[in-house]
Amino acid sequence: MKLVLFETGGAAASPGLMTERGIVPLSSLIERGHTPQSTMQNLIDGFERLRPRLERLASEGEALPLDHVRLRAPLPRPGKILACIANYWEHAQREPRPLNMFLKNPDAVIGPGDTIVLPEFTEPWIFMHEAELALVIKGPAKKVSQANWKEAVFGYTCLIDVSARGEGRRTWKTGSWLGKSFDTFAPIGPCITTADKIPEPNDLVVRFWNDGQLRHNYNTDDMEHRVPELIEFASTVMTLNTGDIIACGTNHEGLGALQDGERVEIEIERIGRMALNVVDPLKRKWERGIYMGADSTNPEAVRRHRPQGA
Question: Is the pTM for the entire model greater than 0.85?
Answer without folding.
Answer: yes
